[in-house]
Amino acid sequence: MTLQEANAARHSVRQYQERQIDDDIISRLNEEIDLCNQEDGLHNKL
After folding, report:
1. Is residue 42 within 8 Å of 36, Cβ to Cβ?
2. Which pLDDT belongs to residue 44?
3. Could you give the angle at the alpha carbon of 38 between the alpha carbons of 20 and 29, nearest 5°?
4. 17, 33, 14, 36: which is closest to 25 by C-alpha?
5. Is the pTM above the cut of 0.70?
6. Three-point CA angle 33, 39, 28, nearest 5°
7. Running DSSP on this structure, what letter comes out for residue 41?
8. Nearest-angstrom CA–CA distance, 1 and 19
9. CA distances (Å), 46 to each of 7, 24, 36, in order?
10. Tens of pLDDT along 1-46?
């Protein structure tokens, strides 16, 4: 199987839940994102 064939055959399923994320978790995620952005010169956001 070639890379193109594998990519075309790829299938993923995700299930999401309708619930809020705690403000503390959002804050910690943003801190980690900021750290990664500084280290690697990125501009990611949550």
Report:
1. yes
2. 81
3. 15
4. 33
5. no
6. 25
7. T
8. 40
9. 27, 14, 12
10. 898 998 889 888 888 899 999 999 999 999 998 999 888 888 888 7
The two tokens of residue 40 are: 């690697």
Amino acid identity at 8:
A
Token representation of residue 11: 């299938």
The first and second tokens of residue 37, run together, are: 């952005």
Distance of alpha carbon 2 from its chain centroid, rounded?
Answer: 27
Q: Tokens standing for 16?
A: 């999401």
Length of the chain: 46
- Residue at token pair 């594998």: 6
- State the amino acid at position 26 in one-letter form: I
